Task: inverse folding
């Protein structure tokens, strides 16, 4: 379905010197800095897959998505999606894709949502009965009924995102690109968006490529992740594997009965202390709570113990650290 | 085609919402109309009467100018389009199966027509009700009327086509401020919107005939009032259509080049 081969993209960025004279100099002589946004990235995605595309800010995620949508032309490399090269056959190719950029809006912001949808119907030349069916389906799944007649600018961010999702699926695309779809949303809206993406993937068989910084998105939606950093492909595989690799890392909170100034526990690293509560970190693979409590209570009076496995954000930041990002 | 008709409709309806701006516009246009009429009539009283531009023609010309002020304004600074270029929202336009050039042209034209419809009727009524000599007169002839109507439509399209070239340049400069204000000044001056062209020295008029700017409002209004006779008006209409085709081709070529090179960085 999607084949990306040795994709590279270099941006030319005009350099400016500092201060007033720097600006004046810049008027006459421009220095350009070449920035490699993408460096030899390759991967394949099968039909019906959901793939999480991860990376820290500035890694090249959005650039990849934009190339795959036909917006940008890569400096070199190849990409065949659904039989088309996106940037060469843009107008034909985009009929079969849906795109949601979390930070931009595709609907017309000063007209009611339903008018935007009708305009999209004409743009994509969707037959009336098909449009009605799809709209009913999306309205039901996303609970849009009350939003359709409201101008977009009056909707909340979560409501807007629901409408954006519906707008990107009206023409029944085969592939859906989601660029940070849950950015800025509250917990409930995030859950709804995730659930919806899952449903359309399962029921309509739409291939989904999703970039996000929210690891819970990934956890809820997919097991296949691709990680890039500084424009290079770093990891392509299962998310569970990565999680497993870091599962030995744990955070331990111990509340003592007395206010100890310093507590030392073998195999644990002290992190912080608030009143009587001390926080430690451990990477011990054979960690057992009973043994641990027994060991510590010999020296100190324990009131309460809480052990947290490493959270997803930390998994990723550890991973980024290890990969040198 | 349907899609473009839809875009026209949605933009048109949307622009019609902004009535308060239109009321303010109407009042401004009426005040400016009166001011210009009395100002130029004072010139004429001094005996400075240009060729082929009688006082009555001049007055009608000025009122037409006020009636269609927004229609003939040299550049429509569409916030939406400027934003797409400056802030990168163009991303979404490019994932649609349609030509960006047509999309933007239709948007610009729809808004132009909608804004005009909101404003021109009150000014028209006011100008007609004014006494002879200071008000709007009937067209020179039926032929002049229909030809000027055709000129009016082509002018709108020509202005949009010229604007599209400006928007293409915006891809390069990334800021609408400079280009648009310079362009507005130049186009207004060379198009006869600041000083009617018949009042300019002959050698300047000759130069302006070779530029596209006067083939918008100047041609349309002077055909209407009969300052240009039907025969030369027909020839100039052909030139007008020629300019339109030239700018459409130029705009499309530029746009294709821009889209190949467009770079949307970040976020």
Result:
């Amino acid at each position: 379905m999607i084949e990306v081969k040795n994709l590279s993209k270099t941006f030319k960025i005009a350099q400016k010197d500092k201060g007033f004279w720097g600006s004046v100099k810049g008027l006459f002589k421009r220095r350009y800095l070449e920035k490699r946004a993408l460096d030899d990235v390759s991967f394949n995605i099968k039909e019906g897959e959901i793939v999480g595309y991860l990376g820290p800010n500035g890694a090249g995620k959005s650039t990849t998505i934009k190339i795959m949508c036909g917006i940008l032309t890569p400096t070199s490399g190849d990409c065949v999606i659904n039989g088309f090269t996106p940037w060469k056959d843009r107008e034909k190719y985009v009929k079969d894709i849906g795109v949601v950029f979390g930070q931009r809006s595709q609907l017309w912001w000063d007209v009611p949502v339903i008018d935007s949808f009708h305009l999209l119907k004409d743009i994509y030349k969707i037959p009336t009965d098909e449009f009605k069916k799809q709209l009913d389906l999306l309205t039901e799944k996303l609970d849009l009924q009350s939003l359709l007649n409201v101008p977009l600018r009056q909707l909340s961010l979560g409501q807007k995102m629901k409408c954006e999702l519906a707008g990107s699926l009206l023409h029944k695309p085969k592939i859906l690109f989601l660029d940070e779809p849950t950015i800025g949303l509250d917990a409930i809206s995030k859950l709804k968006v995730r659930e919806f993406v899952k449903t359309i993937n399962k029921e309509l068989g739409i291939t989904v490529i999703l970039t996000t910084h929210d690891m819970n998105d990934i956890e809820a939606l997919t097991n296949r992740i691709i990680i890039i950093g500084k424009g290079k492909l770093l990891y392509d595989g299962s998310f569970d594997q990565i999680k497993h690799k870091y599962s030995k890392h744990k955070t331990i909170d111990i509340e003592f009965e007395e206010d100890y100034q310093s507590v030392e526990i073998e195999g644990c690293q002290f992190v912080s202390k608030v009143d009587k509560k001390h926080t430690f970190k451990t990477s011990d693979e054979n960690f057992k709570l009973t043994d641990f409590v027994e060991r510590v209570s010999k020296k100190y009076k324990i009131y309460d113990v809480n052990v947290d496995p490493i959270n997803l954000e930390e998994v990723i930041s550890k991973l980024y650290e290890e990969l040198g990002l | 085609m349907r899609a473009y008709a839809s875009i026209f409709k949605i933009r048109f309806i949307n622009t019609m919402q902004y009535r308060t701006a239109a009321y303010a516009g109407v009042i401004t246009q009426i005040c400016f109309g009166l001011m210009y009429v009395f100002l130029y009539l004072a010139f004429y009283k001094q005996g400075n009467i240009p060729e082929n531009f009688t006082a009555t023609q001049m007055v009608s010309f000025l009122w037409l100018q006020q009636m269609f002020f927004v229609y003939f304004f040299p550049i429509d600074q569409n916030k939406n389009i400027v934003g797409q270029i400056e802030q990168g929202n163009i991303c979404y336009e490019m994932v649609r199966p349609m030509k960006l050039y047509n999309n933007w042209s239709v948007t610009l034209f729809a808004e132009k027509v909608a804004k005009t419809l909101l404003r021109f009727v009150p000014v028209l009524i006011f100008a007609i009700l004014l006494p002879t000599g200071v008000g709007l007169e009937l067209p020179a002839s039926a032929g002049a009327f229909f030809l000027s109507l055709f000129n009016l439509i082509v002018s709108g399209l020509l202005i949009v086509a010229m604007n599209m070239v400006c928007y293409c340049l915006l891809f390069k400069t990334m800021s609408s401020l400079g280009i648009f204000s310079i362009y507005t000044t130049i186009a207004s001056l060379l198009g006869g919107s600041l000083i009617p062209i018949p009042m300019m020295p002959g050698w300047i008029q000759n130069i302006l005939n070779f530029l596209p700017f006067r083939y918008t409002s100047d041609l349309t209004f002077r055909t209407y009032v009969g300052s240009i006779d039907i025969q030369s008006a027909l020839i100039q209409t052909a030139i007008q259509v020629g300019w339109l085709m030239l700018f459409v081709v130029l705009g499309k070529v530029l746009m294709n080049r821009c889209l190949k090179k467009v770079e949307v960085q970040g976020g």
About this structure: The first helix of chain B runs from residue 2 to 16. Chain B has a mean pLDDT of 89. The CA atoms of residues 83 and 216 of chain B lie 27 Å apart.
